[in-house]
Amino acid sequence: MIQPDQPQNNCISPGQLRYARILDAGMRFGLLLLVLGFLIYVLDIVPARVAPESMPRLWVLSAADYLQATATPDGWGWTALLHKGDTLPLLGVVVLCGISLVCFIGLLPLFAAHRDWAYFAIALLEVGVLALAASGVLTAGH
Fold first, then answer.
1. Are 49 and 86 in contact (CB under 8 A)?
2. Is the separation of the CB atoms in 50 and 86 below 8 Å?
3. Are 93 and 32 a contacting pair, CB within 8 Å?
4. Does pTM top 0.90 for this prediction?
5. Segment 46-72, tens digit of pLDDT
């Protein structure tokens, strides 16, 4: 494994190293949350709305039918159910899905310090696009 402080290749930029460090840490943290959330769910440490033994029957449903059958809100409404064991593993999924946004935010100070305004603008636009996509504002078909 290449250590971020000791690049093996002079072609690796500080931005690439920072992005990789943040991505690696976020991936590990998200995976840990996912595994812990799953264990909490299947070991019934925190009460669930949907019992694990009900899941095989529900897996065959479409997303819309699953949400209806389990009375689960769509969009970001699931966050109100984080105190339930079956919803808790979604935190790991959110971290894994959102780590790219954090990586780009981490690049902004580096690009600003190097006065690399073109890359700064691209990273800032990427942050905006990812944040807009995650917000659910642009959803269609609901």
1. yes
2. yes
3. no
4. no
5. 999 999 999 999 989 999 999 999 999
Tens digit of pLDDT for each residue in 12-56? 899 999 999 999 999 999 999 999 999 999 999 999 999 999 999
Mapped to the 3 state alphabet, what secondary structure does the chain carry? Answer: CCCCCCCCCCCCCHHHHHHHHHHHHHHHHHHHHHHHHHHHHHCCCCCCCCCHHHHHHHHCCCHHHHHHHCCCCCHHHHHHHCCCCCCCCHHHHHHHHHHHHHHHHHHHHHHHHCCCHHHHHHHHHHHHHHHHHHHCCCCCCC
Give residues with Cβ within 8 angstroms of 140, minimum separation 6.
Answer: none
Type of residue found at 115: R
Structure tokens given for 40: 């909490």
